[in-house]
Amino acid sequence: MLNERSLTVHQDCDQCPIRHRAVCARCESDELERLEEIKYYRKFEAGQMVIWSGDKMDFVGSVVSGIASLTQTMEDGRTQMVGLLLPSDFVGRPGRLTAAYDVIATTDLVMCCFRKSPFEEMMLRTPHIAQRLLEMTLDELDAAREWMLVLGRKTAREKIASLLAIIARRDASLHMTTRAQDGSVAFELPLTREAMADYLGLTLETVSRQISALKKDGVIVLAGKRHVTVPDLERLMEEAGDDTDGGMLV
Amino acid sequence: MLNERSLTVHQDCDQCPIRHRAVCARCESDELERLEEIKYYRKFEAGQMVIWSGDKMDFVGSVVSGIASLTQTMEDGRTQMVGLLLPSDFVGRPGRLTAAYDVIATTDLVMCCFRKSPFEEMMLRTPHIAQRLLEMTLDELDAAREWMLVLGRKTAREKIASLLAIIARRDASLHMTTRAQDGSVAFELPLTREAMADYLGLTLETVSRQISALKKDGVIVLAGKRHVTVPDLERLMEEAGDDTDGGMLV
DNA sequence: CGTTATTTTGACGCTATTCAAAACCAGTGG
DNA sequence: CCACTGGTTTTGAATAGCGTCAAAATAACG
Fold this sequence. Notes:
Distance between the termini of chain A: 44 Å
GO molecular function (chains A, B): DNA binding; DNA-binding transcription factor activity
Protein name (chains A, B): Crp/Fnr family transcriptional regulator
Order of helices and strands of chain A: HEEEEEEEEHHHEHHEEH
Pfam family, one (chains A, B): HTH_Crp_2
Largest interface: A-B, 47 and 46 residues
Number of strands of chain A: 11
CATH topology of the largest domain in chain A: Jelly Rolls
Shape of chain A: globular
Oligomer: homodimer
Keywords (chains A, B): DNA-binding, Transcription, Transcription regulation
InterPro entries (chains A, B): cNMP-bd_dom, cNMP-bd_dom_sf, Env_Response_Regulators, HTH_CRP, RmlC-like_jellyroll, Tscrpt_reg_HTH_Crp-type_CS, WH-like_DNA-bd_sf, WH_DNA-bd_sf
């Protein structure tokens, strides 16, 4: 089901926005050249399915721009988001035939794809790729485990605060975003209430209620439904139940 | 705080019970020899702390026998287990200075340790180690994500059933365990009710109640508090809310 | 046999879910 | 410009499920 918009022209790795963070981050120029031979871009519109759980995976790749989600679904329809894929994040698992999760484009999405078997071959010959992938996978594992604490032990209010804090932090690190001199942070919510609920293990009604509560209590300020301003990030982190006095992850 | 029992004699890798599954699984004999130079064994008693979150990590290693748990704790004492470390599982994260989680010996535990910086050095020169570690980390990531569904979306009863199913499956794969001809499976629970609660994001009272309920409904049979018999594994999987018709993870 | 840890059971309360309806919003076409 | 549509979000009321507190029962241990 490729429409015209799902294919894009070849683009140079040098000017790639995720050049220094993606799986190719450690590659030398000659290694990049070989990667360029097997890479191609694909575009997806918001809501589109990128990969179906159980399907054969014929490519792996990196998120270039936009957001995708990894979700798991039970027979009766309950769904849990198990990962949020941001620019530079890697999709797919070398060494496995079929996809374990649904991958859905949450926003409009551009991916840099590699056909799977050439990529796997190249990984064997190119330690720089395997090393970087290991590093990224370890980071993802940490993120997944951090999220297990959120899912297992936090209240609905803390869950919402945790999600907002994560988005705020990431947004701040990515593009030196709207961070006013008074220390307030502002960002656009990339997720619907339902997507937030699926990420947090809540219902969308509870998400809505808790956002309203945080707003009433002045922890956040809303402009429209999606634009969030956090006057005091420390306050938000406290609400999230996180160690406010500096994380120890060095 | 090393007591005498925490150190053990050097032992040959050839006869190691986790030789084919641990981080060293792909090593050639010459690579093993170099590993043997930097390895040493440590024993821990049930309940002992192996690593404290935030502490400097000066070693990494593999679980040889016994069970350890990775847990995260909030300031107010709420705790969530984020990983169950079984024989052959890897502990520690190359490339990071301090530990992100508490590691606790759930049962008596033997670990095969490597001093961290020699191991990191060796990883750079030995693709076989890095490759295997990547593979193991990807598996752990999958396990963590599977667990996110359990924590986020399953009921207390389903959570208990899921845990029992996991232990049963693993026990069956490890040592061709007590699997009677009628298809029933039996195993020893390696966790206290409290540890189960910490893993499942429940209270120990709820764990106890749900185990009683599963017992009353004939899904499991208890001999003592810890010895579990599962007459019908399919039935247990249904109770866990899992796809009973064969998982698609190939 | 007493002491302590672990587990079970009960009664009650609270949080989050469920079901339902209304408000809001963006887009489309008359 | 307005009415109509479908999707998203908010709000309300009632309920269920799990947590909390308390106490008893059981097992482990010296």
